[in-house]
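Example 232.
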Amino acid sequence: MRIEIATLFPDMCEAVLSESIIGRARKAGAIEVHCHNIRDYTLDKHRRVDDTPYGGGMGMVMQAEPIYRCWQAVCEQLGERPHTIYLSPQGKTLTQNRAREFSQMSSLFLLCGHYEGVDQRVLDKIVDEEVSIGDYVLTGGELPALVLTDAVARMCSGVLPSALCFEDVSHFNGLLEYPQYSRPEIWEGERVPEILLSGHHLHISRWRQAESLRVTQEKRPDLYQKYLEEQE
Ligand code: ADE
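Predicted structure in complex with adenine:
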């Protein structure tokens, strides 16, 4: 899988993407993530990427041409047209299911907007879909692009030690994860649930399933209802 991030702040993205699990997966070649500086695709000597909005109004608008040239260069490097996503609060909210579908695509192009927005004409020309990471507004698309990259990358093969690492966690099957415990057996007078020490795998797995349902019902009654409806 290749993820291509078009941004005005490539260092901000690289700083996050070279650490921890994603950083290791990139070094090992399990995923490729490249950050492209949109400013490198300007043609004027001032390397200008934005201008005032037609019709007036506050702020600046990112111009179409540098973004389009960046996208074309990436298409050429890839030898294919990547699935192109514009990170925007107007998009459909990212879900675990959608992230899994993205992880099965061969390449993604993530466009990070800034200022008051992006010239609509380039969005109409290159973007397949807009994706939001929640109903709130951030100062730019970089953090959303990093969130999407992280959610997608962890489901690509070779990034986590095994698919069990992401199949067993919250949201994968529509439920939240059961509680986890580690050593010591007693901490501040609180014991680890006895069943987890029993070594009885079937009982443990039934307990975890029941806890998953209980936790989901308690913390996210909306997800619980949906889960029940889907079981019918
Ligand atoms: N850009 C600004 N806010 C955003 C959000 N909530 N999701 C995706 N992109 C954004």
